[in-house]
Amino acid sequence: MAVTLTENAAQHVRRSLEKRGRGEGLRLGVRTSGCSGMAYVLEYADQIGAEDYVYESYGVKVLVDPKSLVYLEGTQLDYTREGLNEGFRFNNPNQKESCGCGESFSV
Amino acid sequence: MALLQISEPGQSPLPHERRRAAGIDLGTTNSLIATVRDGHVQVLGDAEGRILLPSVVRFHADGAATIGQAAAEAEVSDPLNTIASVKRLMGRGRAEIGASPYDLSSTDEGPVRLRTVAGEKTPVEVSAHILRALKARAEAYLGGELSGVVITVPAYFDEPQRQATKDAARLAGLPVLRLLNEPTAAAVAYGLDRNPEGLYCVYDLGGGTFDVSLLRLSQGVFEVLATGGDALLGGDDMDAALVRHWMGEGARATSPSETRQLLRAARHARERLSGETEIMIDVPGVFQGLLNRATLEGLIDPLIERTLAPCRRVLKDAGVKVADIHEVVLVGGATRTPRLRERIEGFFRKAPLHDIDPDQVVAIGAARQADLLIGNAGAADMLLLDVIPLSLGLEIMGGLVEKIIPRNSPIPASRAQEFTTYKDGQTALALHVVQGERDLVSDCRSLARFSLRGIPPMVAGAARIRVTFRVDADGLLSVTARELTQGIESEITVKPSFGLSDADIERMLGDSIIHASDDALMRALREQQVEADRMIVAVEAAMAEGADLLMENERTAIERQMVLLQSVKGGTDPQAIRAAIVSLDQASADFAARRMDAGLRKAMTGRSVTEFS
Lengths: 107, 613
Fold this sequence. Notes:
- The complex is a heterodimer of chains A (107) and B (613).
- With 107 residues, chain A is an alpha+beta fold.
- Chain A has a single domain, classed as Hypothetical Protein Aq_1857, Chain: A (Sandwich).
- Chain A is built from two helices and nine strands.
- In chain A, the strands form two sheets. A six-stranded mixed sheet of chain A has the order 4-5-2-3-9-8. Chain A has a three-stranded mixed sheet with strand order 1-6-7.
- In chain A, a hairpin with a 2-residue loop joins strand 4 (53-57) and strand 5.
- The longest helix of chain A is centred in the N-terminal third of the chain and has 14 residues, at 7-20.
- Chain B has four domains: 17-190 and 358-379, 2-Layer Sandwich (Nucleotidyltransferase, domain 5); 192-355, 2-Layer Sandwich (Nucleotidyltransferase, domain 5); 388-514, Substrate Binding Domain Of DNAk, Chain A, domain 1 (Sandwich); 517-604, Substrate Binding Domain Of Dnak, Chain:A, Domain 2 (Up-down Bundle), CATH 1.20.1270.
- In chain B, 35% of the residues lie in helices and 25% in strands.
- In chain B, strands 1, 2, 3, 4, 10 and 11 form a six-stranded mixed sheet that branches.
- Chain B is elongated.
- The model of chain B is unreliable at 378-383 and 496-501 (pLDDT under 50).
- At the A-B interface, helix 1, strand 2, strand 3, strand 6 and strand 7 of A face loops of B.
């Protein structure tokens, strides 16, 4: 099992990183907060921590800290368009339910 | 499940902690507010779920105000205290407004005022009431104060009207992120920014204004190539045409309230005839009769035709053919009329887009833009470029206009030009900022006057004064004048000045084409007149200073030519003035040469030749 990106997501991350001009890769994580218990973290990574798990998808480094990995194992990050909006979506097999707004989730 | 954006390290937003932003379509007939929440655009309704807030405010004797539907219902019973279509009065002076159903205060200075039982109200105050009502909706829905809003305005709004809109927002306690042209907002709502690169046309026929914009999309960036329209044409005019028709059929409206009843019946009739082919009209005691779709179409056809002229002009302005346009977007409730869609399809030779509710599309685009500007949507790839509707320039000698920023320039824009002094020892420069397409100041709109003082005395033409025009993202203008040798500076931000009605903007554009050759002749004439004045001043000064160098027959000749020039310069023939200038120049040439020699000799006296080698 691993944490992966779809080709579409990877392409978008690569472009964003190029535009930003720096960054080792993309950091995925979870933290506790929100109405259903946990919220996703999606950030640029400037440093790779010693404990980070590092995956590579379509040439993009994906970093996950060990604590988050428990909740994210098997997750695929996609980039999609929904109506007027577009952005990243976590397809997480561990997720049991999410709050109405979808910003937080529980496992 | 919400869609996420990548954040900077350590800055992932907490759930439900986004900044609250909203988009507001402050319309002539109806206003509405929309917001982006969890990645979805939501157009917000009132407690009963009604999305459109009639742009109507009713004032009561105790100073309170009723806004929206409840106020609209009193339009008939309390016409003088119930203000509708206030957008048409924004940023205007009394003299610019013709007949009005309201009791307008007669002062000529400043913005127009409406007399109501609650005292005199400015259009800005009335608009602020509408904005407050919308603000309350958004804050109830989002659960807290708004951090910023985007308010849309017609592309044709000039500086005073934009400023008035911002003032209304400030009065309502709304921080304005920016003003956005309505057609541009509509294009964003349709997500045309995801479409193939190319040209898109937005046709917006609202209650009171018509706008047409030509947008070019390239590499995800929208640029407004050209805008046009008619600030006094809309669905209201269709209602008025229908009422006139009924009056011809025997309707009797003897009071303002009866006229309003008829206007309301007309609006309903138009809406119903979008679906049905014949309906019964019944305004008790005023009019009763049948109306079929063909009659309605006959009445509105001339109005639709009036919208096509600006469409043609916009295409011509941008040098574009109908066949080059990818999509046409319809905006505004009046575009629901089936007849109108047919005519648009006929004109553009393609079916227009209309699947987003034409009443909501502008607010949806504004909400999306507000979400981007407040920083919720992450990396903002989208950039909107608007254009200025009329050229901005300065008055120069002879009452001519020097255009600094030409019309249809994308904003924000900043342009500078250098000017100089006209007379020896001139220490101040008056700057007159004007807006318009014509060559003469008197045919343009005066926006502001200010002066630059403290210019060090120099000979005419030696001072270098840089004048910079800046138009910010909201279309507001500031002008700076700076004398470059001493660095003294003077600045003005253009505030509302009243003098020209908005309907005239359309006429001014037309006039600039019709009068192009008159203007060219007038410009040539004024240029020669300015040159003649300059010449006379210079020769007179030289004769006074160098009287000792002047021979008597020379003096007579020069004076004769001077008199001749004085007499022709008031005429209308630039060639004749030119000829007299040349004659005066020739008559004074020898004298001028002797003065120069004398000046040189004076400068060289007492110095050795080597100093000059």
